[in-house]
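Final report, Chapter 2: Outcomes

The project's central promise was a pipeline that accepts a single protein chain and returns its three-dimensional structure in a standardized token representation, suitable for archiving and comparison. That pipeline is now operational. To close this chapter, we reproduce one record exactly as it appears in the project archive, with the input sequence first and the structure output second.
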Amino acid sequence: MIDPTLLVIEDARDHALLVRVAARRALPGLDVRVAGDGREGIAYLAGTQPFQDRRSHPLPDLILLDLIMPEIDGFAVLEWVREQSGTIRCPIVVLTSSEQTEHEQKSIDLGAAAFHKKPSDIDTLGDMVREIVETWIESKSIAGLPSAG
């Protein structure tokens, strides 16, 4: 069985690092990929340069998506995924520091499977990421469901 893949689309390097560490603690063997912004996230998902080799850059089993990013934000990523007519079949969980209450409904309307507000405490963020991974990836792996890659 191929190890599941998590794609983190996050422009804050410290948050991306923490998410990577917490996710790997939750599910050892998890392949965690990081896209530093929405543009890179879309390129990864589309399989365009430099991500065209799917053996090296497998489609993810789960995407953790920040909303507030420069140029291409998380909403634009959600819209792009929705336009792909089902070729991206993994859950997208929004993990954001946005304070705007309407962002949750907009994210869900655009196809996000879940919405979580990033806590300011590092330990709490780590716990939240572990819970998300266990909910969306580990339970799928245990159930023997096929991975996206």
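Archive annotation: The chain is about 40% helix and 15% strand.
This record, like all others produced under the grant, will remain available to the consortium after the project formally closes.
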